[in-house]
Amino acid sequence: MIQFKLYSFFDKGSLLILGLLHLNLISSCIFTISCESYIPTLSYLGTFRLHDLGFILALTLQSFMLLILFIAFHHSLDVALSKDDKHFLMIHEITILIFIVFLGIIDESSSIDFNPFDDIHRFISFAFAGFCISWGYWALKFLANNVLDEEQKLNHKIAFKVYLAAVAFTVLTLFQWLFAYTIYNNLLFNQISESLCEWTAVIISARFPYYLCRVMENTVSISNAKEKSKN
What we know:
Blueprint: E1 2-5, H1 6-31, H2 42-45, H3 51-76, H4 83-109, H5 118-143, H6 150-179, H7 191-216, E2 219-222, H8 225-230
Antiparallel strand pairs: 1-2
Helix pairs in contact: 1-3, 1-7, 3-4, 3-7, 4-5, 5-6, 6-7
């Protein structure tokens, strides 16, 4: 029987996703975009016919990992949620998974010069961020009701700090989207600040499930057919 902590899976999985995104960014700076004066955002890279493949692959992996996270979270709770709380979280989880698929489809169907779904993309991006922020808050709140040992309590505090950092940079990114390309463009709201805020938000958000799983302490067991027959 093979046993491993779920947080180790999310540790390696999040690093793989971030590795794909950063390799995509580096390759775009080498072959496609002059990054001396502008660091491309994820959405901008998604409009390039070659670099969008790395973006779509990362989104696909992220959606798969989120599905596992949602299932593991419900199994990790000591106290059963009420029907209202369970339905509330499930609506969040289904909506997040649907939105992440739509974001990939819209970016794949857009180009640098033509984006017929720009307003829809903006709305889904804002809604996706809102649902993720809300789910993270309630997940941490419900986990706090578990019987946690001292290490889990410490990990809960760390996860909450990571959550706050992710929320802060996500909100900053949303403000950058609103003002960086308007008459309010200044030292605070501009293309460079937008890219830096977005990439920071992506990095922290991608790592948040790992810290959340450190609180959950789920263990996955895998038995092969030979072991089952012996038993």
